[in-house]
Amino acid sequence: MTVLLEFDGEFAQITLNRPEVLNALSFGVLKEVSEALSKVADSDARALIVTGVGDKAFCAGADIPELMNRPLMDELEGAALGQAVFNQIADLKIPSVAVIQGYAFGGGLELALSCTFRVATDRARMGLPEVKLGLIPGYGGTQRLPRLVGEGRALDMIMSGRTIAAEEGERIGLVNRIDNEGSPLDIGKRFLEPYLKHSLCALYFAREAVQRGGRVSLADGLRIERDLSTLAYRSDDAAEGLSAFVEKRSPTFKDC
User: In the CATH hierarchy, which top-level class contains the domain 198-246?
Assistant: First the structure.
C-alpha cells in the first residue's frame, strides 16, 4: 500500500508510503489519500495526523514523470484532483496536523498547508519550487500559503522557488512548532492532545469563523462570528461547559 491508514485511540494517522521516491504524490496516491480521508471522516477519530515514511521526506511533491506530455484537459483534471483531495483534509470537522520530516516540496507542502496545523523537525526543508520548472503551484499553494503567511512572504517563496528551513518556517507562521522528540505519531499526538480536551463542535466553529472570516470584509466576518457563536451556544457541549464552570468542575464534552 502506498498510503497507510491507522487508528490509535482518538487519533487517525495517514502515512505516505513511497520512500523509494521520497513519498511523491502520483495520481494513484492522491486517490488513495482521498479514500483514506473518507474513512477518517466516517470514523470516531477526533484528530488526524499526516506523515510520510522515513526521515528523508514528508513528501517531495508530485510524481514528475507522470506530469509530462499530457493533453491540456488531463492537466486541468490533475490539478482539480489534487485540489479536491486537499479540500477533503481542510473540510474535515476534526483538527489535523502535518508532521514534516525532511523535504516538503511542491504538492507535499500543499498537502501540509491543507492541514489545520504543521509541526516540523529541525531536518525539515520546505518550498514551492514549481517556478524552476516553468510552472506554478496547482494544488492550492498560491491560495493557502498567502492566507497563512501573508502575500509578501508567499510571493517571495513562490516566485523564487527557494527552500526554507524549519526555523524560518516557524518564524513566518508556516510552521506552528518545531519538535524533534519521538516518532511522527508521537509528535503529532503531543501537539494535538491539548486541543482534544475541548468540544470538537467548538473547535470546528472556531476554525470556521477564523478561516471564513479571513476571506471577507471585517463587517462580514463579524456576521460569520455572530452566527457561528450563536450555533455554538445551542450545542449540548455549551450547556455542559457553562454548567461545569458554575459548578466548579471539569466539563465532560460529547462533541455535539
Answer: mainly alpha
Instruction: Find cell 474513512 and name the residue.
Output: 39
Contact in structure between 17 and 1 (CB atoms under 8 Å):
yes
Residues 150 and 187: beta-carbon distance below 8 Å? no
Topology, domain 3-196: 2-enoyl-CoA Hydratase; Chain A, domain 1 (3.90.226)
Residues of each domain in the chain carrying CATH 3.90.226.10: 3-196
CA diameter of the chain: 67
For the purposes of burial, counting CB atoms within 10 Å of the CB of 233, is it exposed (0-12), middle (13-18) or buried (19 or more)?
exposed
Residue spans in the chain of domains classed CATH 1.10.12: 198-246
The model's pTM is: 0.94
Residue ranges with strand state E in the chain: 3-8, 11-16, 47-52, 57-59, 96-100, 103-105, 117-120, 125-127, 164-165, 177-178
Active site residues: 110, 130
Whole-number CA gyration radius for the chain: 19
- Interval 77-118: pLDDT, tens: 999 999 999 999 999 999 999 999 999 999 999 999 999 999
pLDDT bin (cut points 50, 70, 90) of residue 134 is very high
The dihedral through the CA atoms of 16, 17, 20, 25 has a sign that is negative
